[in-house]
Specification:
- Its main location: membrane.
- Pfam families: TMEM234 (PF10639).
- The chain is about 85% helix and about 0% strand.
- By secondary structure, the protein is mainly alpha-helical.
- The protein has one domain.
Length: about 140
Amino acid sequence: MRDVEKMVAIGLVWGITNSVMRKGALIWDQKLKKMKSSSSSTSKLHHQLLGCLQNWFHLLLTWQYSVPFLINLSASATFFAILSDSPISLAVPVTNATTFAATAVSAMILGEETRISFALFGTFFIVLGVWICIM
């Protein structure tokens, strides 16, 4: 049962960080739009590649994105560590279902536009499915 608790915890971390990373990506996107309005566009391939790398670098410098991203990656490493001791037929459904539910709930808490009744209804079925997998 300890492994199932770890799987649920990983799913919660993944789901919450998914929503927070989305908020961080929106902040980065706003910064990117400001930067693009002040710079000229070139069509040469090496300029496009440099621009892409520069955008990626700016995304990683946006702490609202990079901090949850690192937490998410840590949860991924933990997930792979528990896979060595747990059956994959249990680990994958439990963590993925928990991730979907946690993403929906945390997105609602963060104020994303969501159909609350559908999200809660779906979350109920996800929790029910995880419970059935565990039992």
